[in-house]
């Protein structure tokens, strides 16, 4: 099944694995196991995410999105799926996802609180809760990382 093998190889490369994990390839040097990319876990409770960011002294990144928003879907499929973006967000920030696909009064209040008028809106807050900036619309992984680093002082 060569097609399956190619698909598996593509998944491994996308996950940050190298050819060294293929059968017959040399093993990593002693003490140099493959470093697994951190898993990006999105918080879904704004109060808990803010408290965690403050407690850990980390910036908070809020992703306002919806299922009907094409640029939101593109961010999810390309930018947030990128290993370097996921690693950056997982290790440097607390990530909060606010899905407004099915609008409620509470979600509308949250959008008003953060002055969100268009989707997608990715808002960067410092650990104290002060807004540092925003990304509005789709951004390719490299663009997203450059802007995030600029906003967070990396």
Protein traits:
154 residues; alpha+beta; Glutaredoxin
CATH architecture annotation name of the largest domain: 3-Layer(aba) Sandwich
CATH topology (fold) name of the largest domain = Glutaredoxin
Q: What is the molecular shape?
A: globular
In angstroms, what separates the terminal alpha carbons? 44 Å
Rounded mean pLDDT is: 82
How many H/I helices? 6
CATH superfamily of the largest domain: Glutaredoxin
Strand order in space, largest sheet: 2-1-3-4
Unreliable residue runs: 1-34
Question: What percentage of residues falls in helices of 4 or more residues?
Answer: 40-55%
Can you identify the CATH class of the largest domain?
A: Alpha Beta
**Integer count of domains:** 2
CA-based gyration radius: 18 Å
Number of strands: 4
Report the sheet-strand fraction: 5-15%
Note the run of SSEs as H and E.
HHEHHEHEEH
- Tell me the major beta sheet: 4 strands, mixed
Commentary on this structure:
- The chain has 154 residues and is of the alpha+beta class.
- The protein folds into two domains: 1-28, no CATH class; 39-152, 3-Layer(aba) Sandwich (Glutaredoxin).
- Helix content is 42%, strand content 15%.
- It has helices at 2-14, 46-56, 70-79, 83-92, 105-113, 141-152, and strands spanning 60-65, 94-99, 121-125, 131-136.
- Strand 3 and strand 4 form a beta hairpin.
Element layout with pairings:
Elements: H1 2-14, H2 46-56, E1 60-65, H3 70-79, H4 83-92, E2 94-99, H5 105-113, E3 121-125, E4 131-136, H6 141-152
Parallel strand pairs: 1-2
Antiparallel strand pairs: 1-3, 3-4
């Amino acid at each position: 099944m060569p097609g399956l093998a190619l698909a598996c190889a593509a998944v491994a490369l996308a996950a940050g694995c190298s050819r060294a994990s293929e059968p017959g390839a040399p093993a990593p040097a002693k003490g140099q196991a493959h470093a697994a990319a951190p898993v990006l876990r999105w918080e879904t409770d704004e109060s808990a995410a803010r408290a965690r960011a403050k407690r850990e002294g980390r910036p908070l990144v809020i992703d306002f999105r919806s299922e009907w928003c094409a640029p939101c879907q593109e961010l999810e499929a390309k930018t947030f799926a990128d290993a370097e973006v996921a690693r950056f967000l997982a290790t440097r920030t607390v990530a909060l996802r606010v899905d407004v696909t099915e609008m409620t009064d509470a979600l509308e209040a949250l959008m008003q609180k953060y002055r969100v008028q268009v989707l997608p809106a990715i808002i960067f807050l410092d650990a104290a809760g002060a807004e540092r900036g925003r990304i509005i619309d789709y951004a390719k992984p490299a663009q997203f990382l450059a802007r995030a680093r600029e906003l967070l002082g990396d």
